[in-house]
Write a structure and sequence with these properties.
Number of helices: 12
CATH architecture: 3-Layer(aba) Sandwich
CATH class: Alpha Beta
Number of domains: 1
Strand content: 15-25%
CATH superfamily: Vaccinia Virus protein VP39
Order of helices and strands: HEHEHEHEEHEHHHHHEHHE
Number of strands: 8
Largest sheet: 8 strands, mixed
CATH topology: Rossmann fold
Distance between the termini: 49 Å
Length: about 325
């Protein structure tokens, strides 16, 4: 693995291996998978995992083993709850914005994308595509920390994928979301892996599955050694390492338990209309079979219920109270 990891905050980190236009068409394979998920996989998992989590203080509508609810299906669910056509969307942590084809299908009036990092080349390609194809949707992008974002506008939808688990000040982020969301609006968010689950640092376990809880059980000095040994170059982390090294290097984690997310939602006058929980089969089996690992986790985190160590992520649809 290549070393010399150097993070440049303002460097354009747009993806280079695929273009926005190449993602225009949803494959037949993915369509068939979504149909299978809706009519077979999700109903089956609903009964199989109905009582899988017993110590979560929020209503769980579905439990899935890390698959079974595609990004396209999640947007269809949102559209069923409130029609997207002609509405405004605030996208927090838009990244490359290469999933915008999924939004274009519903013809919203406007999409505003915000990201802390620089994806200018990707954003330019999205704007170029919109102009070329005469897509009648207003698109704006801002390279900005959401905590510094200001607007007099309120939005019909606030959406984010893989963002909340990286917010150090999630309370303020949710407070601002409440401010920017219309009274009848919906906030959709998916986030995970959650800090206390397997690979919660988006890094541990990349060398060996047995090390998936290193971020929790190793002391700070030993974890740093583990990181230094396994981190790749900036380009590797960006394109092959799932940006794990970048996230660890900048300590971009909320470090919250699953219940704590919902406590923050409630404190800021949000309630969940629909909640899907994904568990981690790898983490579950690892803890089940490795008694020493389980002992280390439970002795270090005495007040945490064991199920939190394999509760991977949330997919939530929130409304204002």
């Amino acid at each position: 693995m290549k070393k010399n990891f150097i993070f440049e905050k303002d460097k354009d980190i747009s993806t280079k291996h695929i273009s926005f236009e190449q993602l225009e068409n949803y494959s037949l394979r993915n369509t068939l998978r979504d149909i299978f998920d809706e009519y077979f996989r999700r109903p089956y998992y609903f009964f199989k995992y109905k009582n899988f989590f017993k110590y979560q203080d929020y209503k769980i509508d579905f439990i899935l083993p890390s698959k079974g609810f595609s990004h396209k299906s999640r947007r269809e669910k949102l559209n069923q709850m409130k029609k997207i056509h002609g509405k405004s969307i605030l996208n927090i942590g838009c990244g490359n914005a290469f999933d915008y084809h999924l939004w274009f299908k519903y013809m919203p009036k406007k999409i505003v994308g915000i990201d802390l990092l620089n994806y200018k080349n990707s954003w330019d390609s999205v704007l170029k595509y919109v102009k070329k194809k005469n897509v009648n949707i207003e698109i704006k992008f801002y390279k900005k920390d959401f905590n510094e974002f200001n607007s007099n506008e309120k939005f019909d939808f606030i959406v984010s994928d893989a963002v909340f688990e990286h917010c150090k000040d999630l309370k303020n982020v949710i407070k601002k979301c409440h401010k920017f969301l219309k009274d009848d609006g919906i906030m959709y968010a998916s986030y995970g892996p959650i800090w206390f689950s397997y690979g919660g640092d988006h890094f541990s376990g990349r060398d060996n599955m047995k090390n998936g809880y290193n971020h929790l059980i190793l002391e700070k000095k030993d974890y740093q050694k583990y990181f230094d040994f396994n981190v790749g170059s900036f380009d590797y982390e960006l394109n092959q390492g799932g940006v794990g090294g970048i996230l660890v290097k900048n300590d971009l984690f909320s470090k919250l338990l699953a219940n704590e997310y919902f406590e923050i939602f409630k404190q800021n006058n949000f309630h969940s209309e629909f909640t899907c929980v994904e568990h981690c089969p790898i983490g579950y089996e690892l803890i089940k079979k490795d008694s020493l690992l389980k002992k280390k986790l439970l002795s270090k985190y005495k007040t945490i219920y064991p199920e939190n160590f394999f509760l991977k992520s949330h997919i939530v649809y929130l409304k204002k109270i």
